[in-house]
Every structure is written in C-alpha cells, then in structure tokens.
Specification:
The chain is mainly alpha-helical and 267 residues long. The chain has 2 domains: 63 residues; 185 residues, f41 fragment of flagellin, N-terminal domain, CATH 1.20.1330. The strands form 2 sheets. The protein has a two-stranded antiparallel ribbon. Helix 1 runs antiparallel to helix 6 and helix 2 runs antiparallel to helix 3. It is rod-shaped, with a radius of gyration of 39 Å. The protein starts with 6 loop residues before the first helix and ends with a helix. The mean pLDDT is 88.
Length: 267
C-alpha cells in the first residue's frame, strides 16, 4: 500500500472528468437544440449542414424572385384587363361612327371619346412595377433556383404599332372610322396574344414556386437530420451522464480516503 500515488483516485478523477465533459456537452445540446454545438462534435456533419444551410438560403431568395415575378405579371394583367375594355369600346365607337345617319358633329362626339380612350391606353404603356417598365416589351430573366438558372418571362409592348395604330386613329370621318376599326381589331388580337403570354408566364412561374417550396422543405428536413437534437434521446443521455457524475464524485471521495488506512498500520 502506497501513499504518494493513489491510482484509484487518479482513475476515478479521470472517469469523473469524462463524465463531467459529457454532461456539459449533453446540457449544451439540449439548451441549444442542436447536435453540433462545436465542430468537434461532428466535423463532417457540420460541413454538410453548412452547405445545406447556404442552399436553403439561396432557394429562399430564388423563391422570392419568382413570387415577385408573379406579382409583376399579375399587375400587368390587371392593367391589360382595363386596356381590353378600352379597346373594345374604341372598336364599338369606330363602328358607330360609320353609321350613315350620323352627322359630322355626331362623329366628332364619338371621336372625342375615342381619343380619350386612346390616351388612356397610351398612359398605361408608361406604367412600371418598382421602377421596372411593365409594357416596354423587354423579356425578363427570372432566377428560378439556387444555382441561378433562369426562366424567360415574355414581355408586353404597348408601344408597338399594333396598339399605336389604334390609339392614334381618328373616327371623325367615315373613312377614318373604317381605318380605326381595322386598327382596333388588330390591337385586340395582339392584346389577346399578350394576355395569353402573361397567363403562360404566371402558370410556369407557379410551377417553379411550388418546386422551390418543396425543395426548401426537403433541404430543411435533411439539414434537421444532421443538426437538430433528438430531445428524448438526449434527455436520456443527460440523465445517464448526470448519474455518472454523481457516482463518480462519490467514488473519488472514497478513493481519496483509502490512504487513511495506512494510519492503522502505523498505530
């Protein structure tokens, strides 16, 4: 029996230190809700979770871009619905102005309304969405995923001759009314095509939006498997480590008291 070197106490202290470290780690996981409190907990898992987290963030940004593009298209169509009403009325006025029972002064009244509606359509052509022109005819490249892939959002050009020929018409004369009627019919046909393109844009962007939403959920689930703590399992581990710390402390006290038995030999 020796006094200077208490192997039992050293072993007990070492085991107690391990249990204390494990208890602290378990407590940190439970309080943070994460299995990876420090890189040493799971270095590979940390690397993968960081990549997944970055992709989730980029996916969220892409989804925001898609939603904004959908809003832009919806705004465009809202204006074009009113343009359709205006052009329909303009075509009606062009036909009414061709009535042989109408006088020149009657046609002048029809023309006044026609010009007002034409000015309205021309004004709509200048509208914008957050500073981006709605009707300059430019196609827009909408980011649709976390890697920067894009979808071509077809534009609408209200300044094209298909529209300006109608808005610039004059129905104060019989010949002018006949010409304006053809121009308004062309404009209405173009408007129908443009609204169909907007509908196609919205439909496709809706698919992209649903795809991004599903991807984001799946990525979050994958990241959760790596980083999120299982509270039930970790609570069991915490209880285990807590018991080990308490028993280790008691055993260390016992090991430290063992050299006192030497005094009996010296008595």
């Amino acid at each position: 029996m020796v006094i200077n070197t208490n192997i039992s106490a050293q072993n007990a202290a070492s085991l107690l230190q391990q249990s204390s470290t494990n208890l602290s780690a378990s407590l940190a996981r439970l309080s943070s809700g994460s299995k990876i409190v420090s890189p040493s907990d799971d270095s590979a898992g940390l690397a993968v979770s960081m990549k997944l987290g970055a992709q989730i963030a980029r996916t969220g940004a892409a989804q925001s871009n898609v939603n904004n593009a959908i809003s832009l298209n919806q705004t465009q169509d809202g204006y074009l619905q009113q343009v359709n009403t205006a052009l329909t009325r303009m075509s009606e006025l062009a036909v009414s102005a061709q009535d042989v029972t109408k006088t020149t002064s009657d046609r002048a009244l029809y023309n006044q309304e026609y010009q007002t509606l034409g000015s309205y359509v021309n004004d709509v052509a200048t509208k914008s969405f957050n500073g981006v022109s709605l009707f300059n005819g430019n196609n827009l490249s909408v980011t649709t995923d976390s890697e920067g892939s894009t979808f071509t959002n077809l534009g609408v050009n209200l300044a094209s001759t298909s529209y300006t020929a109608a808005t610039g018409g004059n129905i104060s004369s019989l010949s002018g009314a006949q010409s304006a009627l053809g121009a308004t019919e062309t404009a209405i046909n173009q408007l129908a095509s443009d609204r169909a393109n907007i509908g196609s844009n919205e439909e496709t962007l809706g698919y992209y939006n649903n795809q991004l939403s599903s991807l984001s959920n799946n990525l979050s689930a994958a990241k959760s498997q790596i980083t999120d703590v299982d509270v039930a399992t970790e609570s069991t581990n915490y209880a285990k480590q807590n018991i080990l710390v308490q028993s280790g402390t008691a055993m260390l006290a016992q090991a430290n008291s063992m050299p006192q038995s030497v005094l009996r030999l010296l008595a």
